[in-house]
Design brief:
The structure is a single chain. The chain is of the alpha/beta class. The protein has one domain: Vaccinia Virus protein VP39 (Rossmann fold). Helices cover 30% and strands 25% of the residues. The chain has nine helices and eleven strands. The protein has an eight-stranded mixed β-sheet, sandwiched between helices. α1 packs parallel to α2 and α1 runs antiparallel to α8.
Length: 263
C-alpha cells in the first residue's frame, strides 16, 4: 500500500520501497539519483525556460512533473498512473499548485499511449514500475514504436530502468529502442555498468542529436556521478541482444532486497 512519510520532507513508499520524494517548498530538489539524471536530460531538451509538452507514463508523487512545471513554466503535462489508490493519495496529501499545467489520468500506460495523438509530445518520460519491476507490456518493439509515434520529430524518450549483470533486460531494451530511434544514450553509475551491483539506468532515445558532452558534465558533477554511454561503446554493450517482440516480453528483474533508497 502507498504511504507518505512526513518526517523527512515528503517520502512516498509503496510496499515498503521508496517510490518518490517531493519537497513542496522546492520542487526543483530531486533526492533520488535517477530523478536527477532524468532532469538533466529535460534541462537540455530545449533552451532554458522554454515550455515543453510532456507525457509521463507513471506518476508516483509527480516529482518530475512538478520539477518541469517549476523550471519550465507554461509546460503542458499529462501524467498517466494506473494505481488509483496511489493517485488518490497523492492528490489528497500532495496537491498540485493552481495553474501547474499538470493533468493526471488514471489509466494503463500502454493503453493511454496507444490512444494518444501522434506528434503531440516534446518529451516522453517512462517511469512505470509494478511493485519494483517494469511491466512486460512496456518493454516491446510495438511499445517503442508507439512512443516514437507520439513524440514530435525532435522529441526525446526517457526511461528509468533497473538491472544487474549480465544485463539481459537492459541490453534487450537498448536493442528495442535502437531499432526505432536513431540516437541512443545510457546513463548509469560505473559500478552498475561494471556489474558490481543492481541499480538504475536511464535510457535516452531520440531522432535528433543529443548533447552528450553537456549531459556528461552534469551527470559527472552529481553527488553520485554517472557515466553517459553512447555510440560504438553502447553498441558493444548491447552486443547480440535483439528487440523484444510481444510474445517474448518479460518484466524487468526483481531487485535484491534493500536495493533502492534515497540518494
Amino acid at each position: 500500500m502507498p504511504d507518505v512519510d512526513r518526517d523527512h520532507a515528503w517520502l512516498l513508499t509503496v510496499d515498503d520501497a521508496p517510490q518518490s520524494y517531493v519537497d513542496l517548498d522546492d520542487p526543483t530538489h530531486l533526492e533520488f539519483e535517477y530523478a536527477r539524471r532524468l532532469a538533466h536530460v529535460l534541462d537540455l531538451a530545449a533552451p532554458e525556460g522554454q515550455p515543453l509538452d510532456a507525457l509521463h507514463l507513471g506518476g508516483g508523487a509527480l516529482t518530475l512533473p512538478r520539477y518541469l512545471a517549476a523550471t519550465r513554466p507554461g509546460s503542458a503535462q499529462d501524467v498517466v498512473e494506473a494505481d488509483a489508490g496511489l493517485a488518490g493519495l497523492v492528490e489528497e496529501e500532495l496537491p498540485l499548485a493552481p495553474g501547474s499545467g499538470i493533468r493526471t489520468h488514471r489509466a494503463d500506460a500502454r493503453a493511454w499511449l496507444e490512444a494518444a495523438p501522434g506528434d503531440s509530445a516534446d518529451v516522453l518520460v517512462a517511469d512505470v514500475f509494478g511493485g519494483s519491476r517494469v511491466p512486460a507490456h512496456l518493454t516491446t518493439l510495438d511499445y517503442a514504436r508507439q512512443a516514437e509515434r507520439v513524440l514530435r520529430s525532435d522529441g526525446i524518450y526517457l526511461a528509468n530502468l533497473a538491472d544487474s549483470a549480465p544485463f539481459d533486460f537492459l541490453r534487450s531494451q537498448l536493442a528495442t529502442f535502437r531499432a526505432v530511434f536513431e540516437e541512443l544514450l545510457l546513463i548509469a553509475e560505473p559500478a552498475v555498468l561494471r556489474g558490481r551491483r543492481f541499480g538504475n539506468a536511464v535510457l535516452v532515445a531520440s531522432h535528433g542529436e543529443l548533447d552528450t558532452a553537456a549531459l556528461a558534465r552534469r551527470t559527472a558533477a552529481d553527488v553520485f556521478p554517472a557515466r553517459v554511454t553512447g555510440g560504438e561503446e553502447l553498441r558493444r554493450f548491447v552486443g547480440a541482444a535483439r528487440p523484444v517482440d510481444e510474445p517474448d516480453a518479460v518484466p524487468s528483474p526483481e531487485p535484491p532486497g534493500g536495493t533502492f533508497g534515497i540518494g
